[in-house]
Structure formats: C-alpha cells, structure tokens
Amino acid sequence: MAQDTDVFVVGGGPAGLAAAIAASQKGLRVILADGAKPPITKACGEGLLPDAVAALRELGVKMREEDGSALRGIRFVDGDSSVNAPFPAGPGLGVRREILHQRMVERASDCNVALMWNTPVTGLFEEGVVAGGKRIAAKWVIGADGSGSRVRRWCGLESYGIRSRRFAFRVHYSLEPWNDFTEIHWAGQAQAYVTPVGPREICIVLISEKRDSRFNECLLSFPKLAERLEGAARASVERGAVTGMSELKRVYRGNVGLIGDASGGVDAITAEGLSLSFRQARALADALEAGELRHYQEAHRRMSRRPWQVGNLLLLLGRQTGLRKRTMRSLAAAPQLFERMLAYQMGETRPLELATAGAIFGWKFLAA
Q: How far apart are CA 366 and CA 368, in angstroms?
C-alpha cells in the first residue's frame, strides 16, 4: 500500500504539534489530526520553564513580546514562610495556553505539516490510521492524544506503573501581578499556583486531592491569596482537569510511538509537563530519522527520571504538613540551597553538587 505520509500524529495539542514540527525539521512528511479545532486550551498553570522556552526556540516557534510575561523564578509560600529562587539560565514565560497553541500551529503550518482539524481518528491498522472515515497510510504513527489516549489503548500499551490522581481548577484574573515569579502556595493537602501571563492578568490554578472540590471552596484554604484576589474581575470561566503521576513500561510498539501525557506524565506540581513533551519531541524525531523507536524508549526513560524524582518529593511535602513546614524553615534560613535544588530540576546542577547541597540542607533541617 502506498504511503500517504511518513508520520501521522494523532492529537493537536502542544505535544502533538511539537512532535509534528520536530519530525518535519528532519525532512519527513507529516500529517496531524485532531477532533477539535484551534485554539485548543487546557486547565494548566501556563508557566513555561526556561528549558521549555529554549525548546520552543529550537523548534522555530516564535513567541512575541506581547504574548505573555517573563518569569524570573519560583517562589514557595506556606503561611507566613516563603522562599524563592531565580531560574539559573534565563527567564521562563507565563503565557495563556491558547496563545501558545496558536503560535505552535503557525509554526507547524510554516513547516508544511498537513493539519486536519475537526477530524477524529477512530482506529489504527497495520499501515496507518482511520481518520475522518478514511484510511491514511503512514510509516509511523505518533499518539499525542493525552492521558486518556486511545492510541495507547489500541496498540496495547495501557499497563501503568505508579500512578496518582489529583484535581485541578483554573481561573484567570484581570489583576496586575505583584511579582515576576511563579508562586506555589501550600495549604494542607492542596496547592495554589499563581502565574503572571500578561501585564494585567494572572492565572490561578488550585489543585486538591478531593474529587468534589471546586475553585471557590479550595481558595478558602489560602486566605492571603484570596485577599489579593478580592474585588478582581475574572478574565475566564473556571475550567477543570485531572493531573497525576503515571508511568508506562513501554512507549512504543511496532511503528507506533507515544508522546506527552499519552506516554505517561508527571504531576502539575513539577511544572515540567510541557518541558518534558518538547524534549520528547526532539528525541522522537531523532529516532524516526534513524528508523529505530527503541532509541526513543531509552531517551524517554532518561529524561523522565529527574521530573519523577522532583514530583515525588513535592507530593510528599504536600501531604506531610509538619515535614513541609520544617523544610520551608530550613530553606528560608539558607536560600542558596533552594537555588541549587531548582538548578537540579532545570538540569543545571550535577547530582554530586546536589548531594553536597543535600548534606548542608540536612544540618539546617535538624536545626529548624
């Protein structure tokens, strides 16, 4: 059967678009299909870490100055305690998801990716996919259709490792940001994420382990944040999503590979979701060029290790109030330790340097 394309990407969110762009940069013919139409949005924190910003540049995605707000670092807040650290290698970016999506769509179009919107993919066959009721032959099929991936299920890769689930709610407010950091506020077993996304707009995401939580109810756990938001107009409707930690034993089978949340995910608390997807896209494109998806499997496992470590640590702090408060006091007494930990998350610190910082932290923790 003659091939209609080299690569068929199922799913038109940021992960799918990144995979399509990266594959096209290798000279491969690419078709992307999604049952929705742009702009595709999602309830997320909307903060891009510096390595995600760098990955977008490598993909040729051009963000404009007016698209969002530069982010200088991360700040943790727990009651009256706070600690912050700047990003070690340039700023991040706070940007509305639909704006990011539009810029990525523009780049995919410039790369001659064939974009099939309002076109659901309803099945796989050995040589390709069924999309919009038609068979389309492809050498490679990429599943970028999210945490509930049908592609993953169709090709028998549904077996999960460790998994956790939490519930997120997002609202934008018309309000001038009070700093240029992404803030994570802690309270009990919930967190609030505050991200500037414009000169007079902020994104608030509340995450709870309670399935029946809602935004207004959860906000009561953060009285100081609620006081800042009092009287500010909402700039968007409330949207909900599920976040969690999930891991697949394999992320490919035959000529089908998975990327983004379809390939497993890290909790939103790490802010690593998009960064990880963009790095996966480059590794996947290299594997497609080489004709060996097993290379992608190996790269996927390596690049997921650090976000998983960070995610598990932060989830532990979220669930153990006493441990978290003691940790916050220790970091506040030695802010440079928080900087090193953030640098490790960004990949800018070697494990040995982190171990040295950890030893110092241990002394501070015992004295807190």
A: 6
Q: Which residue in 96, 166, 83 sits closest to 342, CA to CA? A: 83
Task: Count CB atoms within 10 A of the CB of residue 159.
Answer: 10
Instruction: Quote the radius of gyration of the chain (alpha carbons, Å).
Output: 21
Q: What is the pTM of this model?
A: 0.90
The token duo for 324 is 């978290």
Strands (E), the chain: 5-10, 30-33, 47-48, 68-71, 73-78, 81-86, 92-95, 114-116, 121-125, 128-131, 134-143, 160-174, 181-187, 190-198, 201-208, 233-234, 239-248, 252-253, 256-258, 264-265
What's the CA angle centered on 203, arms 200 and 208, to 5 degrees?
155
**pLDDT (tens digit per residue) in 201-210:** 999 999 988 8
Contact between 170 and 238 (Cβ < 8 Å): yes
Pairing of strands 81-86, 73-78: antiparallel
User: What percent helix, strand, coil does the chain show, rounded to 5?
Assistant: 40, 30, 30
DSSP 91-114: -EEEE-HHHHHHHHHHHHHHTT-E
Q: Rounded to an integer, what distance in angstroms lies between the CA atom of residue 24 and that of residue 181? A: 35
Read off the pLDDT of residues 74-92 as tens digits, 9 standing for 90 and up.
999 998 888 888 988 889 9
Contact 34, 116 (CB under 8 A): yes
